[in-house]
Design brief:
heterodimer; A: mainly alpha; globular; B: six-stranded mixed beta sheet; four-stranded antiparallel beta sheet; binds adenosine-5'-triphosphate; binds magnesium ion
Chain lengths: 323, 252
């Protein structure tokens, strides 16, 4: 009984699985029509956090590295794009790109230091370094300290599209989100992604096959940081604000919660998780600090009964598929 | 004579907090041979493998591979120099399929492993070669099965296929037939004999029949020391070896 290379299943011949294609098309349709049913500002917030969580999931879900410092990349991407748009007068696309660049550079440094450690120590190093970044943001003059950078101009995309219009801005953010989402999808389904899965599964074996695993982890970390920076940079333009909230450790906690709730290591989970949490925050805003309690409750629920997250559990019900 | 030796150690010693697991081992593995390392449980065989492949740093002693001192190398470097090991506790990538397991090794050898922008289709090019290797170890019927679901003996076979995919000059196999059924033991030992024609093999093995059939030379280890060395006839008649094995359940 021999398998011919030609008759292999979709998984082994590298085709995008049908259920991913269908889910993506449905998601795209919903997101395209969404501004006719929801406030664009709310939707843009969802998309920025969905992108952030998707970037974070690349690391925790596909490399098995729990970073507790991702706010540093989100926040600094946000600061730099706000500064570039407001002080340097750069157009939105370049402002965002400069946010991505600085987040990637930070990713190389923080990742380079953190990947020498494993498990909880890795998480602690990322947290410690992110706290240093937070205090830098608190002290450095260009971040505006407690006030942040306010009244950031959204500007004209490519010099023509006026992003002050919320609907135009929404479709721009949707495009940014889709680029980030598809990039992450490509990364986890690339030759590089295959090695990442192997390292996550059995690091020792990967070493014994001659893989320089630190370089793979560093590249994954940097990509995740850069895409987190993309999310933060976009968010700064949308809300015309970059503030300490974006670099605060609670932001790192929030992205963990979103990813966990949606489903670690799933493709669509982080987006669903982000949408759920942002919706909850909006509805519970009147309750003040009870929001934090509610989030804590969700966290405990996830860890105790919902191990796979919303999308993970759904996939299990739909015939053990990974969405 | 010296360049006839593929792998050589001098006074190799490993202490764990005062306990000496490997003691003053002088080993020489000749190019193109199958060299077996045997000994009772806890003799230090796996520790030796860990030292040779640099998964553990030696307390004392030197290691030379193809005339090159690798005492200070790291395990990745050792693998890249062409010395690849398998593990006693079966080491597969449990959530990857059998085919994906083997492809990972092929990918390492051929390059392109950092290409995060290329689609998964790029991995197709390895399928034919991977399937050949999978057939060779008798796993053709489970090529698309997730490795973690395989029974123990078949995981071992997968591990050998993965190791072979790197086309290593030297293979270190830690109990390659452990946990296998009778038929698979025959298949794997025939496979080892076949692939060893172009390589050097150092293996730890408890199955005395496999050792007798395959090995050109045998080193017997007990309590971390070399007790005896020679071909099968010499070793099996050695009084110290008989004595060391009488007290254990490996008296076969
Ligand atoms: N990391 C370690 N720390 C402390 N002691 C160790 C360590 N690794 C191995 N040992 C000890 O060293 C001795 C040799 O172990 P090793 O695994 O090398 O034996 P072995 O010859 O491979 O045995 P087996 O046939 O059971 O596989 C044992 O007594 C073991 O308990
Ligand atoms: Mg052993």
């Amino acid at each position: 009984m021999t398998v011919e290379a030609a008759s292999l299943s979709a998984r082994h011949s590298g085709q995008v699985p049908g259920h991913h294609q269908i889910t993506f098309v449905v998601m795209l349709a919903l997101l395209t029509m969404a501004p006719y049913g929801f406030y664009p500002i709310f939707l843009m917030k969802v998309l920025c956090f969905a992108l952030f969580a998707t970037a974070f999931n690349l690391l925790i879900g596909f490399v098995g590295l729990l970073s507790f410092g991702h706010a540093a990349f989100f926040g600094f991407g946000s600061y730099l794009s706000a500064h570039a748009a407001k002080v340097w007068g750069l157009p939105p696309e370049l402002a965002i790109l400069s946010g991505v660049a600085v987040a990637a550079a930070l990713g190389v440094v923080i990742g380079g230091l953190a990947i020498r450690r494993h498990g909880i120590y890795f998480a602690m190093v990322t947290l410690a370094l992110a706290q240093m970044i937070y205090f830098f943001a608190l002290q450095a003059p260009f971040t505006g300290g407690e006030d942040g950078i306010q009244a950031v101009p959204r500007g004209f995309l490519l010099g023509v599209i006026d992003l002050r219009n919320d609907l135009a801005c929404y479709y721009f953010v949707l495009a940014v989100y889709l680029c980030g989402f598809l990039l992450v999808y490509r990364i986890i389904h690339s030759p590089f992604g295959e090695v990442l899965r192997a390292i996550r599964d059995n690091e020792t074996r990967a070493i014994s096959l001659g893989y320089r695993i630190k370089l793979y982890k560093l590249l994954a970390f940097t990509l995740s940081a850069a895409i987190s920076g993309l999310a933060g940079a976009t968010k700064a333009l949308v809300f015309q604000l970059a503030s300490l909230t974006d670099v605060h450790w609670t932001m790192s906690g929030e992205v963990i919660l979103m990813t966990l709730l949606g489903g670690l290591g799933t493709v669509f989970g982080p987006t669903v998780g982000a949408a759920t949490i942002v919706t909850l925050q909006n509805h519970l805003a009147a309750l003040g600090s009870w929001v934090t309690v509610a989030q804590g409750g969700i966290f405990i629920l996830c860890v105790l009964v919902f191990r796979r997250g919303l999308v993970g559990e759904l996939g299990r019900l739909l015939g053990n598929r990974q969405f | 004579m010296a360049d006839d030796i593929m792998l050589e150690t001098e006074g190799l010693t490993k202490e764990f907090k005062g306990f000496i697991a490997v003691s003053d081992v002088h080993l020489g593995v000749r190019r193109g041979t199958i060299h077996a390392m045997i000994g009772p449980n806890g003799a230090g065989k796996t520790t030796c493998f860990n030292l040779l492949t640099k998964f553990l740093p030696p307390t004392r002693g030197r290691i030379r591979y193809r005339g090159r001192d690798i005492t200070k190398a790291d395990p990745t470097e050792v693998a890249r120099l062409g010395m690849v090991r398998s593990f006693q506790i079966s080491a597969t990538f449990p959530r990857l399929s059998v085919l994906e397991n083997v492809r990972i090794a092929l990918q390492r050898r051929r390059g392109g492993s950092f290409d995060f922008w290329r689609p998964a289709k790029a991995l197709r090019q390895y399928n034919a070669e991977a399937l050949d290797l999978i057939d060779m170890v008798g796993l053709g019927d489970v090529a698309e099965t997730t490795a973690g679901e395989l029974p123990y003996g078949r995981k071992r076979a997968l591990e050998i296929a993965t190791t072979l995919a790197l086309d290593p000059e030297m293979m270190l196999l830690d109990e390659p037939t452990a946990g296998m059924g009778h038929e698979d033991v025959g298949r794997i030992s025939a496979l080892i004999r076949r692939v060893a024609t172009a390589r050097t093999v150092l293996m730890v093995e408890h199955n005395i029949k496999v050792v007798a059939d395959l090995s050109h030379r045998i080193t017997v280890l007990a309590s971390g020391r070399i007790l005896a060395e020679g071909d099968y006839d010499q070793v099996s008649r050695h009084p110290k070896v008989i004595e060391a094995y009488m007290g254990t359940d490996h008296a076969a």
